[in-house]
């Protein structure tokens, strides 16, 4: 297929202080170029794919221009979604009205997406991740020397063990895996509104590569040496967002909500430092993935919204989910359950009173006004 | 005058884990009790005075029950404000509808307020502070062994010197001075909505005393060994709130706003660590005075609101102030000017790009959409 220039590469809104871009680590491909694949095409996947494709186009000496994006094929008005995206350069289903670069190619088969890819972006709904990993971990599929990054939020608990998705991918595919998280509402990112993100990396080469893939004047990347912290902050903030929504639903004011955010941030940081060796308090205090994402999520976002409804109506979360989310799943309640199960198994619930209360209010009938008592 | 029990002491919303209250440092008064005076009676002053008077009443073995509050006398509907407050136990002018404890006594003369006081709370508008200090620093007015705390926000710049109000009070009155700041919208505090605050103290005795004066189930005090950090955070947050309001006024989304808060918090912390020896990064990252107050101020509050109007209309801040604030002064623009003057004198504006941009946009005609460029 022929690749036209991206339809939406405009002059950047401002010029950054121009230090020459550092030399990228070498590609394992014969072409000498890196090749980006994006697994996932929801609103967040499409927004990230858009940025990656724009950067690949601009730095075509170092990247293959074509960026493939895995789309689970479905029919949209009688047409295949992949064909719609590739013809109109719009993801009509998940990110309508945002023109996608022409060098971003929707692809229905996972194997075609990751073929020759040296840089693989995981951004599927988390329930698909195991299937995806199984499929691409078959011999001969992945390019030796490939690297991964995940933008999937959540954790997995097995008894007294807890894993981030970055550690799962790294363990099962045996490739270095980074994590991307930040104050990044997908639609705002896609529209090019200024924001920041954080990438937790296992090493310097990963930092250089993923910064080249994602950094742009409107999407400022900071890299930190803390994959677990970045992964965890993106998951745990959703528990705090439930608490924030409950505060809103009870009609409490800004002081109370700010107190909940502060306590929530402390529990997030404490949890990470206690259970993930090598993680860093600064990721939570200083980075977009920590404090900034927490703020965005607790003042916007669906976890906050559903918890507000929960506090107002007393309806169970699964009912509210169906009523308000149009088929999407609530991340916060899922993470709350996983984290509670883990803390029970480790006999450490008492160390995390806010997490524990959110769980008990959401699932065990504790009255919602108990939330702020005795914190 | 006879003192009836406070009219509004109700059962606390919850019982805290009851460790016995620690023994307070001895009072210099012959009675052996401490005596609280509150200088200021605006909404924030009245809210703090209410809490202090309730605590003094509850701990009458350690505190004189009567708490005096300085009220600049004015006529309200033909009656003296002090008399209205003392008869109705309502501050009809600045905190209407909130019943004040009966042991809180409005007093028009400063000397009567601080007579025998061992614990003096400064919470006047900052422009009155120098007059107040001058008046009570005359010989024989202050009780030897008295301590002070300030809840006044702002800084004072003289050439290359910068002072907090806590350091001014301490220097001019030669008494140990603490600082109180936190995510504390006055009306919400007065209503007893759960919130937290931070008190920066110069020593252990101050921590015990001020915690006894202010801590309550709905107004949770944390003390930190960082008077400057607590003072500065309360002042500098208002500059960031101007930036947040500008983002709102430009119609930018939650990502951008969260990025501004994150960058703002970093500049606040950096400023304090650079110019105030002994201050602590944790005050900003962990405490209500830091991150939590910043959030509250950037999502509510008048600095945000006026800056939003500024970005929308292009009117100068003094016009907006008159239009929206009903005679009150905007703290953020004042602090922005002071901080900019100080940074210029120190040739350090480049270290604080967000502070510098807010100043240039507010006062030097820089277009507001420059705010997020190149941060």
Automatic annotation (TrEMBL), chains A, B:
<dbReference type="InterPro" id="IPR036291">
    <property type="entry name" value="NAD(P)-bd_dom_sf"/>
</dbReference>
<feature type="binding site">
    <location>
        <position position="331"/>
    </location>
    <ligand>
        <name>NAD(+)</name>
    </ligand>
</feature>
<dbReference type="InterPro" id="IPR006168">
    <property type="entry name" value="G3P_DH_NAD-dep"/>
</dbReference>
<feature type="active site" description="Proton acceptor">
    <location>
        <position position="237"/>
    </location>
</feature>
<feature type="domain" description="Glycerol-3-phosphate dehydrogenase NAD-dependent C-terminal">
    <location>
        <begin position="226"/>
        <end position="372"/>
    </location>
</feature>
<dbReference type="InterPro" id="IPR008927">
    <property type="entry name" value="6-PGluconate_DH-like_C_sf"/>
</dbReference>
<dbReference type="InterPro" id="IPR013328">
    <property type="entry name" value="6PGD_dom2"/>
</dbReference>
<keyword id="KW-0560">Oxidoreductase</keyword>
<protein>
    <recommendedName>
        <fullName>Glycerol-3-phosphate dehydrogenase [NAD(+)]</fullName>
        <ecNumber>1.1.1.8</ecNumber>
    </recommendedName>
</protein>
<feature type="binding site">
    <location>
        <begin position="302"/>
        <end position="303"/>
    </location>
    <ligand>
        <name>substrate</name>
    </ligand>
</feature>
<dbReference type="InterPro" id="IPR006109">
    <property type="entry name" value="G3P_DH_NAD-dep_C"/>
</dbReference>
<feature type="compositionally biased region" description="Polar residues">
    <location>
        <begin position="1"/>
        <end position="13"/>
    </location>
</feature>
<feature type="compositionally biased region" description="Pro residues">
    <location>
        <begin position="19"/>
        <end position="28"/>
    </location>
</feature>
<feature type="domain" description="Glycerol-3-phosphate dehydrogenase NAD-dependent N-terminal">
    <location>
        <begin position="35"/>
        <end position="201"/>
    </location>
</feature>
<dbReference type="GO" id="GO:0051287">
    <property type="term" value="F:NAD binding"/>
</dbReference>
<comment type="similarity">
    <text>Belongs to the NAD-dependent glycerol-3-phosphate dehydrogenase family.</text>
</comment>
<dbReference type="InterPro" id="IPR011128">
    <property type="entry name" value="G3P_DH_NAD-dep_N"/>
</dbReference>
<dbReference type="Pfam" id="PF07479">
    <property type="entry name" value="NAD_Gly3P_dh_C"/>
</dbReference>
<dbReference type="GO" id="GO:0005634">
    <property type="term" value="C:nucleus"/>
</dbReference>
<feature type="region of interest" description="Disordered">
    <location>
        <begin position="1"/>
        <end position="32"/>
    </location>
</feature>
<keyword id="KW-0520">NAD</keyword>
<feature type="binding site">
    <location>
        <position position="186"/>
    </location>
    <ligand>
        <name>NAD(+)</name>
    </ligand>
</feature>
<dbReference type="GO" id="GO:0141152">
    <property type="term" value="F:glycerol-3-phosphate dehydrogenase (NAD+) activity"/>
</dbReference>
<dbReference type="Pfam" id="PF01210">
    <property type="entry name" value="NAD_Gly3P_dh_N"/>
</dbReference>
<dbReference type="GO" id="GO:0005829">
    <property type="term" value="C:cytosol"/>
</dbReference>
<feature type="binding site">
    <location>
        <begin position="40"/>
        <end position="45"/>
    </location>
    <ligand>
        <name>NAD(+)</name>
    </ligand>
</feature>
<feature type="binding site">
    <location>
        <position position="302"/>
    </location>
    <ligand>
        <name>NAD(+)</name>
    </ligand>
</feature>
<dbReference type="InterPro" id="IPR017751">
    <property type="entry name" value="G3P_DH_NAD-dep_euk"/>
</dbReference>
<dbReference type="GO" id="GO:0042803">
    <property type="term" value="F:protein homodimerization activity"/>
</dbReference>
<feature type="binding site">
    <location>
        <position position="128"/>
    </location>
    <ligand>
        <name>NAD(+)</name>
    </ligand>
</feature>
<dbReference type="GO" id="GO:0005975">
    <property type="term" value="P:carbohydrate metabolic process"/>
</dbReference>
<feature type="binding site">
    <location>
        <position position="153"/>
    </location>
    <ligand>
        <name>substrate</name>
    </ligand>
</feature>
<feature type="binding site">
    <location>
        <position position="329"/>
    </location>
    <ligand>
        <name>NAD(+)</name>
    </ligand>
</feature>
<dbReference type="GO" id="GO:0046168">
    <property type="term" value="P:glycerol-3-phosphate catabolic process"/>
</dbReference>
């Amino acid at each position: 297929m022929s690749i036209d220039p991206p339809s939406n590469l405009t002059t950047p809104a401002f010029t950054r202080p121009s230090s020459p871009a550092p030399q990228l680590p070498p590609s394992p491909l014969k072409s000498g170029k890196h090749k980006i694949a994006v697994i996932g095409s929801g609103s967040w996947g499409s927004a990230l794919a858009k940025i990656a494709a724009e950067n690949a186009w601009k730095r075509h000496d170092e990247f293959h221009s074509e960026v493939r994006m895995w789309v689970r094929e479905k029919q949209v008005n009688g047409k295949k979604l992949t064909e719609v995206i590739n013809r109109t350069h719009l993801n009509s289903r998940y990110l309508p009205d945002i023109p996608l670069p022409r060098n971003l190619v929707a692809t229905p088969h996972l194997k075609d997406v990751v073929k020759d890819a040296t840089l693989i972006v995981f951004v599927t709904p988390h329930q698909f991740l195991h299937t995806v990993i199984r499929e691409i971990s078959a011999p001969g599929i992945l390019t030796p020397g490939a690297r991964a990054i995940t933008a999937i939020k959540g954790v997995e608990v097995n008894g007294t063990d807890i894993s981030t998705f970055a550690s799962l991918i790294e363990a099962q595919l045996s490739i270095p895996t980074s994590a991307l998280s930040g104050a990044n509402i997908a639609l705002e990112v896609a529209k090019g509104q200024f924001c920041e993100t954080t990438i937790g990396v296992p090493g310097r080469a990963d930092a250089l590569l993923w910064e080249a893939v994602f950094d742009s004047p409107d999407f400022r990347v900071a890299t930190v040496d803390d994959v677990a912290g970045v992964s965890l902050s993106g998951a745990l903030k959703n528990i705090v967002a439930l608490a924030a929504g409950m505060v809103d639903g009870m009609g409490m004011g800004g002081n109370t909500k700010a107190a909940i955010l502060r306590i929530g941030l402390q529990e997030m940081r404490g949890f990470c430092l206690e259970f993930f060796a090598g993680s860093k308090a600064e990721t939570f205090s200083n980075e977009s993935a920590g404090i900034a994402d927490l703020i965005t999520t607790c003042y916007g976002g669906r976890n906050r919204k559903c918890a507000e409804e929960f506090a107002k109506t007393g309806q169970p979360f699964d009912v509210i989910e169906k009523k308000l989310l149009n088929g999407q799943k609530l991340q916060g309640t899922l993470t709350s359950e996983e984290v509670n199960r883990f803390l029970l198994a480790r006999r450490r619930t008492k160390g995390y009173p806010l997490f524990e209360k959110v769980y008990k209010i959401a699932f065990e009938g504790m009255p919602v006004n108990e939330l702020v008592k005795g914190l």
